[in-house]
Amino acid sequence: MAHAPDIGLADYLQISQLYADYAQAVDSGNWDLWPEFFIEDCVYKLIPRENYERGFPLATLFFESKGMLKDRVYGIRETLFHDPYYQRHVVGAPLIHKAEPDRFEVEANYAVFRTKLSQESTVFNVGRYLDVIVRTPEGLKFSQRLCVYDSEMIPNSIIYPI
Predict the structure, then answer these.
(1) How many CA atoms lie within 13 A of 111 on its CB side?
(2) pLDDT confidence of 6, banded at 50, 70, 90?
(3) Is 65 helix (H, G, I), strand (E, B) or coil?
(4) How far apart are CA 161 and CA 62, in angstroms?
(5) Average of pLDDT values for 82-100?
(6) Cα 161 to Cα 44, 72, 158, distances in angstroms
(7) pLDDT class for 131, splitting at 50, 70, 90?
(8) pLDDT digit string (tens) for 101-116?
(9) Residue 138 in 3-state DSSP?
């Protein structure tokens, strides 16, 4: 087992709060909040585990800037037609792999549950976040978020952020 880097309690709590705030934001359906968790020059990928582990670049979703995230928000609201559903994230405790004064490499497991109206809740997507988090004047933000999901099978399509 690799030794975790020493970071202060304040930094760990800020990272944990970032994860909790992110989950609450994407579960709330207030999509304008989502891009604000990222810096302007960011990367967001939703990628199957097999592709990630083999170094294959193909991703289910791949955005290379905050502007692209905002375009996705527009698409969610204005152009995508789908059966409405709620999602709920359960995120594990963040594991800090590398810590520098203004940059952290962090991993956390996640599970996303989906509830369609008048149906039972189901497990929708399970995997791990592989993140690069940077300190900005506005607080901690994601520079890179890789959502590496375990199953190659995804139901229908991914509409909302993971």
Answers:
(1) 6
(2) confident
(3) coil
(4) 11
(5) 92
(6) 10, 9, 8
(7) very high
(8) 999 999 999 999 999 8
(9) coil
Provide the greatest CA pair distance for the chain: 48
User: Exposure string (b/e) for 5-41, b if CB count within 10 Å is 16 or more?
Assistant: eeeeeebbebbeebbeebbebbbeeebeebbebbbee
Exposed / middle / buried, residue 97 (Cβ in 10 Å: 0-12, 13-18, 19+): middle
The answer to whether the beta carbons of residues 44 and 145 sit under 8 Å apart is yes
pLDDT category of residue 2 using cuts at 50, 70 and 90: low
Q: What single string gives the DSSP state of each residue in 8-48?
A: -HHHHHHHHHHHHHHHHHHHHT-GGGGGGGEEEEEEEEEEE
Kindly list the distances between the CA atom of residue 159 and the CA atoms of 31, 35, 124, in Å, as whole numbers in the listed order: 11, 15, 12
Residues 110/162, Cβ–Cβ less than 8 Å: yes
Cβ atoms within 10 Å of 62's Cβ, excluding its own = 13
Rounded distance, CA 80 to CA 102, Å? 37
Both tokens assigned to 147: 């959502």
Q: Which amino acid is at 31?
A: W
Residue with tokens 């930094």: 11
Residue 94 pLDDT grade (very low, low, confident, very high; cuts 50, 70, 90)? very high
